[in-house]
Amino acid sequence: MFVCFSLEVDIVGNIQATSPCLHPSDLIKVADLIQKEGFDSVFSVVRRHQFRWSEVKKGENKMTEPQNLNPAKRYRRQDWPGELYENGSFYFAKRHLIEKGYLQGGKMAYYEMRAEHSVDIDIDIDWPIAEQRVLSFGYFGKEPLKEVKLLVCSIDGCLTNGRIYVTEDRKEMVSYDYRDLVGIDLLKKRGIQVRLISERDCSKTLSAMQLGCVAKVSATNKLQVLEDWQKDMGLSWKEVAYLGNEESDVECLKKAGMSGVPADACTVAQKAAGYICKSNGGCGAVREFAEHIFLLLEKVYSARKQMEETSSAGKKMEGNENSRRGNKELMKKV
Prior knowledge:
The protein has helices at about 25-35, 95-100, 125-135, 155-160, 180-190, 205-210, 220-230, 250-255, 265-270, 285-334, and strands at about 10-15, 40-50, 85-95, 110-115, 150-155, 165, 170-175, 195, 215, 240-245, 260, 275. The chain is α/β, with parallel strands linked by helices.
């Protein structure tokens, strides 16, 4: 139907949404195969090193037979180039093939994807594998990701559950989750500053927790405090994370590069946040948000590694090209 209503389209690409490690650079090369080298269709494959045997169904009185090896001359995996298998990541074809209902045909070519990029989400157990592949080999966009260097956390409703207990002698008490304190400690060990903010004067509460964090209490304008901290530390907003739960946190949540709320945060705060914790405030939400930050850091490190590898490969190709040019010039002189 798309082709019928899009007469200007000459090439159609079908990309599997369940193949999350496909990179734009792969698709550019595929487009070149069709537009510059004259292929009618290109599909993705991956190289596998698997020995195949014929299937013997239950009740059949026969033995299995090797399909792609000689057991008498069995070679090691690293000495065998392997075989190419479709991985279903994408199918590109010219218009006339699509109109006939074909994904492949005419002058065909395959595009071999790297094994680490070839992952498909088909059943539930594929999710954790895909997640790890994406963190290590996924595409993270043109703009370099920034490390979070500051987490600002609202005390009431995030670090605590928002409840205030009053004793008989009129002293106030609050409760907190030890897991959240561990989360703050882990953030500090990763070089991330943690600062706390509250609209109330909860100095005694902070003193009892002994967190060792910079804190601003009786903050009538949380956004102003956040902006002051961001400027004083010389950070971009992408390097700032904010965990809040109330209407007074909304503008801070919108400003921060990474934002989160506990599961029991108010509706307007949830709408403004990029991440909603499964845990309630004062019940592990800070620790959970810390883990979310650590996942981003993994993406940052992976993206840097990809950029370094790409840069190194580019310099190597440039060096080889310069060497070939030098050899040609030398041959001309001879």
